[in-house]
Structure formats: structure tokens, C-alpha cells
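Bench log, entry 3. Co-assembly request; chain sequences pasted below exactly as received.
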Amino acid sequence: MIIHANVFSYFIALAAALILSLVLRLPLLPDKPMRNSWTISAVFPTAVLSVGFYAMAYELGYHGYLVALITGIITALFAKFILEKVVPRPEGEESHE
Amino acid sequence: MNEILGIILAAIISWFNFVLIDTWMGLPESPGVKGAEIIGRSIQKRGGNLAGGFFQGNIVCSPDASAGTLLASIACFTIGTPEGGLIAAVLVYFGNRLCADPGYAGTTGALSITAIIYLTSFIGFKPEFFIVGMVLAILTIQGLYQTGASRLLGKLAQKMGRYTKIS
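Structure output for the full assembly:
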């Protein structure tokens, strides 16, 4: 099997999302215990979303380092300002868990 | 690689991938939604294990590592490796959040099976082996003998320190 994606582009998307989300004051990791935490952090889900979004852009025909950088930046902004509004945590989740 | 042998091995790998990740992420500890609790209690009434029942209820009610494994295999088959798996991880994450689940198990399952599909491709495995293998793996948990499977999952949860405190 041939991996045709540019691995460096994924790293750029990942690094851009991580750095910008830390600059935007998102925590590096979710609160403990992590498996029950609803906190949006730099590592999860921002980093995961950034490589996923770059994979989507790649498959739509947009390649390159610049695209990866823009994807990473957009992902961090999305995670900070929009994600909670699109998929909010369920009401009363903290007490339930 | 022989197709039948490949599917059997892929089923075993997929089984361990999703059962270990789901248990580690605490699926047997508590039901995430009401439906999972109803399934868990029903399995307990039929002679099964409550923690195993919560596990089975949770994987029915939200896309956990089982769905992540299956969707990532399908996406690797249709889109390619690793793009398909990475896209599947994002979609599973949004699916999780919509199903009152923070999304760790599903996303981890999708990413880990993507890595496994990539690594095993060097020894002749194809993503389609994992699609069939995962369907067979879920069948052993949900389809063949649910109460027996719940007892096995309960024992595993106990060993991994994820047994439910609910009685």
C-alpha cells in the first residue's frame, strides 16, 4: 500500500492547531479523569480534528504546506469558539458522570 | 494473503482493539445514556453481568471504539490509508458528541485501527479484511450469546479496574 499524503503537511496542521489552541488558552490536556472529561483541550479534540480536517482538504484536492497551516489555524479557532455551540455537552452531564 | 485466514486474523485483531479500548475508556463503569442502562439491566436479569451489560448497552447507544474501528476500516477501504481513517475519526468524534459521549473511545479506536491497517498492509492485509473482521467481532459480543459475552466483558473490566460501582 502506498501512502501518498505528505506526512509533513499533517505535522504542520497538527503543530499549528496545537500552538494556536495553547495561545488561545485552551488547556493542553482534558481534566482528570480524562475519560469522563468534556473539556475541549489542545490535544483532544483539537489535534485530532486538525489532521482529520487536513485529510478532508487533501481528498478534496487542496494540497500543500500552506493548506495544512490554514487548516490547523481554522481548527484551533473552531475548537475554541464554535465547537461547544455545535455539539454542546449534555445538560447535567457533570453530575451524571 | 489468503482471504479467509486474513479475515479471521483481522477479526481477532479488531476484537482486541475495540474491547480493550472501550474497557480502558470506562464503558463498563456506567451507562452514558438511559438506553444503555436499560440494556445493561435487561442483560443482568437474563443472567448476565451488569458491567458487561453496560458495555454492551453503551456500544449500542453511541459510536464507541467498535463503531470507530468499523468506520475507519470502511473509510480506509473507500478513501485510502491513512486519510480515510483520519476523516473517520473526525466523523466519529462528532457522532459521539451528538450521542452524549465525550468521544475518547470512538476516536482512539478509529485512530488505532488506522495505524493497525497501515502496519498490517505490509504483510498483505487489506482494509476490507478488517471490515468483515469487525462485523464478526461485534457479532461475538452482541449477537451469538449476549449474557455469556457480558460475563466475559465483566471479568475483563474487573481485571482492568473499570468495574461498575453501580449495583
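Chain B has eight helices and no strands. Chain B touches chain A through 29 residues (CB under 8 Å).
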